[in-house]
Amino acid sequence: MRLDKFLKVSRIIKRRSVAKEISDQGRILINNKTAKSSSNVVVGDQLIIKFGNKTETVNILKIIETTKKDEAEQMYEIVDESYKEDFRNGIN
């Protein structure tokens, strides 16, 4: 399945156009390699997604073409979530 479609179907990112934009900016890695929106993902791949000040590491558990909300959560597991420190605002 294409990366942008997986991100939308799994509801990690709400819109496919946003998933495409983020991945084409080089902010998503598949198995530690920069990915484009058209990159294929398979079960067992690890995604590192950089959202602004948040970085999320996700393992793909299942590929499903269409899902309901409760099924979407079964498609991946979050391995790590980290946040950049924002010294300007005193937020950690």
Automatic annotation (TrEMBL):
Protein name: RQC P-site tRNA stabilizing factor
Family: Belongs to the RqcP family.
Lineage: Bacteria, Bacillati, Bacillota, Bacilli, Lactobacillales
Coiled coil: none
Single GO molecular function: tRNA binding
Subunit structure: Associates with stalled 50S ribosomal subunits. Binds to RqcH, 23S rRNA and the P-site tRNA. Does not require RqcH for association with 50S subunits.
Record PROSITE patterns: S4 (PS50889)
Transmembrane segments: none
Xref: Pfam families: S4 (PF01479)
Any single biological process term in GO: rescue of stalled ribosome
Function of the protein: Key component of the ribosome quality control system (RQC), a ribosome-associated complex that mediates the extraction of incompletely synthesized nascent chains from stalled ribosomes and their subsequent degradation. RqcH recruits Ala-charged tRNA, and with RqcP directs the elongation of stalled nascent chains on 50S ribosomal subunits, leading to non-templated C-terminal alanine extensions (Ala tail). The Ala tail promotes nascent chain degradation. RqcP is associated with the translocation-like movement of the peptidyl-tRNA from the A-site into the P-site.
